[in-house]
């Protein structure tokens, strides 16, 4: 997005500019102290850029900074040609040239968490760039203090020895791999997992996995999580006791998918899912990370899976309505287990003087046909809610801040609610406080929902409470045809011309109260509340049962 690009360009310009300036000052002027200070500033900028642009190529900048520090060091010592500094320079040159390739090679190694193995080499390789920047900072300090050149050489040789050990171990792994895989594969074979959860997604998508982990654990069988992006390893490993394995290559996947596995679960339609679907000995099951009438919820790619677990009949109808032909025997209705903790209100609550309203704007999507975001027109909606004495829970989609315009719009809404809270004392929930609450907690706290087209509506539907849906495409009568779930809610036009009418129905009269129960059964299945999640757990266990067990249990 545009804001992210600006940050990256700013970091790039700052790092390069400071590196060039430090070298020029030290090489062409006598201001040694200022030059060393600029070199340290360039190192700090480089470290910041590495956080903003992981894997950034900083070879040219690092060479300039190293050269500048060595020039300043030599000038501080003022003893002519110093062989120790020459040797230090050669070691630094070797490190600069090695860091990038070693980091790339380390990034191709399988990594794991929640397993009794420690693969130190890939981790060290990933941090060599930081180690080099730290070494240069030490050399800059040694130069400022005019310490003997032997100190600089010793420090450089120490880091160089570490890099050499990493290089040798990575070469051994690449050219002399162990038969049957490495330590991770051996630990997984001992673990004997029966199924895996496969995950590939953009940054910030961890919620797609964490919403399913408690239910996968309740299946009661050993499993593992396979990741295709390294940034998820720490956060997802913290959310489960199951082994979590990062597989950067297809070869790493071959190592991680041990013979005991019978099934693979998926939570989205990521492009890399095909890398796992190729293992035909597994049963491949799509779970999705929500149930909604959005266009992606009827993705034709679902057809590649052996089973598609859906919340209710409405999900099956959605594919048919979109013209996606998938054999009926692939679908399994399992409900939406994540709603089991949502409190149900069996009787409508009408005419509340001070209602609590949950507002959940979605993000703009990757494509125009998936842009259901109401943030551009939401201010008038919130002002009307405040006029009615409502307390608002503002819970935006996790991807909202990826779009600078959406981030600004969300910021203005947050300021509006914070100002009203200070003026009236109404305890609106916004910002970090809203993010800390689970969706279930938000639903249980609310009397009504205003949402864009998203999976939040399906979850809220379980409560039996009223909801309104924003028609951001100005589709009028066709809106309910495209998004049938809106038929049991109150539709807000894009121009908000009917906002008062909708809020009266939502908060006062609620004429669709009875219709929602039929919609609830169609979208979320008809399962007893006291054992709602058992539908999913039983279906998952059936897929894990050996074929002979299923045959034996089938009546003749």
From TrEMBL:
Pfam families: Glyphos_transf. Keywords: Membrane, Transmembrane, Transmembrane helix. The chain crosses the membrane at residues 20-44, 56-74, 80-102, 123-145, 151-171. InterPro entries: Glycerophosphate_synth, TagF_C. This is CDP-Glycerol:Poly(Glycerophosphate) glycerophosphotransferase.
């Amino acid at each position: 997005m545009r804001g992210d690009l600006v940050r990256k360009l700013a970091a790039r310009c700052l790092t390069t500019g400071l590196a060039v300036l430090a070298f020029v000052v030290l090489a062409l002027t006598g201001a040694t102290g200022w030059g060393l200070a600029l070199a340290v500033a360039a190192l700090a900028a480089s470290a910041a850029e590495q956080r903003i642009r992981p894997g950034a190529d900083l070879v040219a900048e690092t060479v300039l900074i190293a050269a500048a520090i060595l020039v300043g060091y030599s000038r501080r010592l003022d003893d002519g040609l110093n062989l120790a500094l020459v040797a230090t320079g050669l070691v630094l040159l070797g490190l600069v040239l090695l860091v990038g390739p070693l980091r790339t090679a380390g990034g191709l190694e399988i990594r794991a968490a929640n397993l009794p193995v420690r693969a130190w080499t890939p981790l060290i390789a990933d941090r060599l760039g930081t180690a080099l920047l730290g070494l240069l900072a030490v050399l800059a300090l040694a130069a400022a203090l005019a310490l003997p050149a032997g100190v600089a050489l010793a420090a450089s040789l120490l880091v160089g020895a570490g890099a050499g050990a990493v290089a040798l171990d990575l070469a051994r792994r690449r050219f002399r791999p162990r038969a049957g895989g490495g330590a991770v594969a051996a630990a997984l074979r001992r673990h004997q997992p029966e199924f895996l959860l496969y995950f590939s997604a953009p940054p910030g998508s961890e919620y797609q996995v964490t919403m399913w982990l408690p239910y996968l654990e309740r299946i009661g069988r050993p499993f593992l999580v396979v990741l295709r992006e390294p940034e998820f390893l720490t956060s997802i490993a913290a959310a489960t006791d199951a082994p979590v394995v990062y597989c950067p290559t297809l070869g790493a996947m071959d190592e991680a998918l041990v013979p005991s596995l019978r099934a693979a679960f998926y939570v989205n339609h990521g492009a890399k899912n095909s890398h796992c679907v190729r293992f035909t000995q597994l049963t491949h099951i799509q779970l999705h990370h929500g149930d909604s009438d959005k266009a992606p919820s009827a993705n034709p790619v679902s057809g590649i899976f052996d089973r598609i677990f859906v919340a209710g009949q409405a999900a099956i109808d959605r594919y048919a309505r979109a013209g996606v032909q998938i054999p009926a025997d692939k679908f399994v209705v399992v409900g939406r287990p994540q709603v089991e903790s949502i409190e149900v209100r069996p009787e409508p609550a009408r005419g509340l003087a001070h209602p609590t309203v949950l507002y959940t704007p979605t993000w703009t999507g990757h494509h125009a046909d998936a842009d259901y975001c109401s943030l551009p027109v939401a201010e008038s909606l919130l002002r009307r809610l405040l006029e009615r004495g409502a307390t608002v829970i503002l819970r935006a989609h996790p991807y909202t801040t990826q779009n600078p315009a959406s981030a600004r719009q969300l910021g203005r809404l947050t300021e509006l609610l914070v100002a009203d809270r200070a003026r009236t004392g109404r305890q609106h929930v916004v910002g970090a406080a809203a993010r800390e609450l689970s969706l279930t907690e938000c639903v249980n706290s609310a009397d009504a929902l205003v949402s864009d087209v998203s999976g939040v509506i399906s979850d809220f539907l379980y409560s039996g409470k009223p909801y309104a849906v924003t028609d951001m495409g100005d589709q009028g009568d066709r809106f309910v045809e495209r998004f049938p779930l809106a038929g049991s809610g109150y539709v807000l036009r894009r121009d908000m011309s009917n906002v008062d009418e909708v809020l009266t129905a939502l908060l006062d009269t609620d004429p669709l109260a009875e219709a929602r129960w039929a919609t609830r059964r169609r979208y979320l299945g008809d399962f007893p509340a006291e054992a709602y999640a058992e539908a999913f757990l039983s279906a998952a266990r059936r897929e894990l049962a050996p074929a002979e067990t299923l045959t034996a249990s089938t009546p003749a």
